[in-house]
Amino acid sequence: MKKVEVKTSVTVYEDENELMKEDYDLLMKARAAAGRAYAIYSHFQVGAAILLTNGEVITGNNQENSAYPSGLCAERTTAFYASSRYPNVPFLKIAITAINRKEKLTKPVTPCGACRQVLSEYEQLYKSPIQVLLAGEEGEVWKINSIAEILPLSFSSDFLPDGN
After folding, report:
1. How many structural domains comprise the chain?
2. Catalytic annotation, pick one of 16, 64, 75, 123
3. Can you list the positions of beta strands (E) in the chain?
4. Domain around 31
5. Is 16 labeled as catalytic in the residue annotation?
6. Rounded to two decimals, what is the model's pTM?
7. CB-based contacts of 135, cutoff 8 Å, min separation 6
8. In this structure, are residues 127 and 88 in contact, taking their beta carbons and an 8 Å threshold?
9. What is the tens place of the pLDDT at every residue in 36-53?
């Protein structure tokens, strides 16, 4: 028997103004997308912005529905749109942020398990890490080097399509 330790490393920026310009701009696009979210039931608006390796930025947000399980998170909305619009183009970075109409968010929001799994599959498919930026409405911003660090024991298959 052996024991294996799994660790996650997070770089914490005290303020979004400490970010490099590319990261700051991506976060601002995610924040703008959060403002457009359809979240009339929870009033918790989440926005995401994905920077693709071709330089394109795709944004999306959460979409709620009165038939509650029919809605979709911002991260998956954005990832699926990016993949359908630019098939075979890897994701370089994703920024995720939220607005809570009930109280100001001062800590970063993190993706749910389903969103982590979806993003993990894109990371595995392209064999390339996806950097993650997480923020609330103000305060700290977290930067993580890959989806694998926030979902280290992801579900995977022995077979991933390789285009052949």
Report:
1. 1
2. 75
3. 10-13, 44-52, 57-61, 91-100, 131-135, 141-144
4. 11-136
5. no
6. 0.92
7. 16, 27, 30, 31, 95, 96, 97, 108, 109, 141, 142
8. no
9. 999 999 999 999 999 999
**R_g over Cα of the chain:** 16
Q: Are 75 and 91 in contact (CB under 8 A)?
A: no
pLDDT tens digits for range 137-154: 999 999 999 999 999 888
Looking up tokens 């993949």, which residue turns up? Answer: 83
Tell me, what CATH number does 44's domain have? 3.40.140.10
Please give the C-alpha separations between residue 75 and each of 133, 157, 158, in angstroms, as whole numbers. Answer: 12, 22, 25
Q: Please name the residues in contact with 63: beta carbons below 8 A apart, sequence gap of 6 or more.
A: 37, 38, 71, 72, 77
CA distance 9 to 6: 10
